[in-house]
Amino acid sequence: MLDSLDSPFIHTANSENFKELVLDNSGVGPVLVNFWSKNAGPCLRQYPILDKIIHDYAGRLLLINVDTKTEFIYTKEYGIASVPTLKLFRNREVIETLHGYQSEHDLVKMLDQHVSRDSDQLLSSAIHQYSQGNQEKAYEMIAEAIVDDPENPRLPLAMCKLLRHEQRYSEAIKLIKSLPDDIRGNTEIKMLNEVIKFNVERSDAQGSEQLVEQTKKNDADLELKKQLIIEYVIEENFELALLQLVEMMEFDQSYANNYEQSAMLRVFILLGDSHPLISKFRPNLRRYIH
Question: What are the Thioredoxin domain coordinates in residue numbering (predicted)?
Fold first, then answer.
């Protein structure tokens, strides 16, 4: 067992408490899950670093250890092929995955993008200002926070979400492009960037039901099918979007410079690394790629 006796922020999960310790707690804050084995030397070398980091974060991050030799259900569910594997959960979803031994520097660099910082308090105040109708004040506060803490990805993420809410898509895309590579590579920012680009490609917000009826009358109209896919994505009906993309691939593999393949990869980004729809539809991507 890897529990630290003096830390309330480190626990061991099993089939009975995994949901509570990992999924439920991830709705409150980030939860780092350490898939390990006592027979693996890299796991034993990794743990003192994890223990130190959790103590340094002082309650802003939970560490949950899962023994892959005994907890087969979760080892299989999360596709653990080697140990140590670290998965960071937030809001019941895996948002980061690291394979193999990690240095303290690399771990902290990743975790700092997700663990709360002082600038998050400023962000909270800015969002309150926005909700009170003081939009310009809110933008000013977030911009100042970004200057003071450029390593916090939640600041540009929040600003881009507000810009998207106001349909100021070009400004949001410009902001994302201006970010440093490591911040622009943040999972949530990458996802939002794709959503915004789908919004830009949307010709008319008709709704998927109306577009379905139109495609029935114009089955060969690939631009109409493209708009239906975009609508499904915006509605977060990703499986129907992927099914429509496969249908388009079968009809015309080279439409608009292989739009179907690039759009499918973008949907995969929105789904996240471990979503079952990715393994279901990836063979179609390989089948039609050329």
Answer: 1-116
Residue 83: give its domain's CATH number: 3.40.30.10
| Domains held by the chain: number | 3
Helix axes 259-271, 222-234, angle to 10 degrees: 10
- Whether residue 3 lies inside any domain: the answer is no
| Of 69, 96, 111, the domain-final residue | 111
State which residues form the domain around 18.
10-111
- Per-residue pLDDT 10s for the chain (290 aa) are 455 446 889 999 999 999 999 999 999 999 999 999 999 999 999 999 999 999 999 899 999 999 999 999 999 999 999 999 999 999 999 999 999 999 999 999 999 889 998 899 999 999 999 999 999 999 999 999 999 999 899 999 999 999 999 999 999 999 999 999 989 998 899 999 999 999 999 987 788 999 999 988 988 889 999 999 999 999 999 999 999 999 999 888 778 788 999 999 999 999 987 799 999 999 988 776 55
In this structure, the strands spanning 31-36 and 62-67 are: parallel
pTM summary value:
0.73
CB atoms within 10 A of CB 148: 12
